[in-house]
Amino acid sequence: MEKSFPAMVIDSVDGKTSGTFREISMAELPDYDVLVEIAYSTLNYKDGLAITGKGRIARRMPMIAGVDLAGTVVESRSPKWQPGDEVVLNGWGLSETEWGAYCRYQRVKAEWLIRLPDSFSMQEAMAIGTAGYTAALCVDALEKWGTIKPGSGEMIVTGAAGGVGSVAVALLSAQGYNVTAATGRPETHDYLSFLGATGLVDRAILQEKGPPLQKERWTGGIDSVGSNTLVNILAQTVRGGAIVACGLAGGADLNGTVMPHILRSVALIGMDSVAAPLEQRLAAWRRLERDLDREKLRKMTTVEPMSRLPQLAEDIIAGRIRGRVVIDVAST
User: Fold this and answer.
1) In whole angstroms, what is the distance from residue 274 CA to residue 95 CA?
2) DSSP states of 190-215
3) What three-state secondary structure class fits 310?
4) Same fold, 4-116+300-328 and 130-270
5) Residue 282 pLDDT class (50, 70, 90 cuts)
């Protein structure tokens, strides 16, 4: 076991926050119950914000970035886990309040971990990552709402070529929903059709300011953009429909009205994946095992060495990333 290893560390220098590689020793890791040797992590929009300093993600510094990990238990003081167990961790404040996954080893709390699902490799689990797991949580929430059924109308997925959107399109189409994908990149149209989208809409149309009530179109949807995009799709949702909001790539503001909610009974469901309880997490992974087509997962995934994180972070913030990026932590 290495005495020290490289990590992507977020710190503030001269008032500017950004990420750089530095050596971390085993002794510096938190004193938590389970030591995990990390094989893979992944790249999420939040990771891009943290590394580039374009969003305040780290609540304390220095902070190791990376919100997801898949790896093997090396040491454990908890009876829940034994050396050799293969595990997955999504969220729980990693890279925000707790040291994250862009390093070879990390100590974590036992209750943060779930067992690697039998049908996924570690690389596949990180191809899903927080983005795909969040998409599964959103689909679960829509179906629990109770009024949305496969074949009952159009479903909208915004940010469709991104991580959450790609998995959401694949999961919804697997259940027989008619999925319309919102994207601003024409070069992704064939990709989105392959994932199961039956319709496409230019994201620019959804970003324009519109009236508080618009022509009813969407039975339901999953939004990772926020701001005017979310306002417009709520205004276009049919009576009794529901939209799940899980991101803010387009902004955290919501300059809409209550009219869709009180005149059409439209529901806005918020989804926090970071601190979701264990049963919700396990249900989301069961859905992913059952409904996520492995060929579609391969199509949406690229694998990159950890050394490329600075450039990849810039790319995801600029909207140049398609699908999912797995980070090979051992490749520095």
Assistant:
1) 11
2) HHHHHHT-SEEEEHHHHHS---SS--
3) helix
4) no
5) very high
User: Which superfamily is assigned to 130-270 in CATH?
Assistant: NAD(P)-binding Rossmann-like Domain (3.40.50.720)
Q: Architecture of domain 4-116+300-328 in CATH? A: Alpha-Beta Complex (3.90)
Q: Residue for token digits 């009205």?
A: 257
Distance of alpha carbon 252 from alpha carbon 232, whole angstroms: 14
**Which H helix or E strand runs over 262?**
helix 259-263
Sort strands 114-115 and 86-90 into parallel, antiparallel or unpaired. antiparallel
Identify which of 151, 154, 137, 153 has the alpha carbon closest to the alpha carbon of residue 278.
137
Please, what is the end-to-end C-alpha distance for the chain in angstroms?
17
Q: φ and ψ at 264, to 5 degrees?
A: -125, 5
- Check residue 56 and give its pLDDT: 85
Can you name the residues that pair with 218 across neighbouring β-strands?
154, 237
Flag the least confident range among 14-23, 97-106, 116-125, 256-265: 14-23
**Sequence letter at residue 299:** K
**Helix (H) or strand (E) run with residue 126 in it:** helix 122-145
DSSP assignment letter at 103: B
Element (H, E) at 282: helix 278-291
Q: What's the confidence (pLDDT) of residue 146?
A: 82
Identify the pLDDT of residue 332: 65
pTM assigned to the model: 0.92
pLDDT digits (tens, 9 = 90+) for 37-54: 999 999 999 999 999 999
Residues linked to residue 244 through DSSP beta bridges, in sequence order: 222, 269
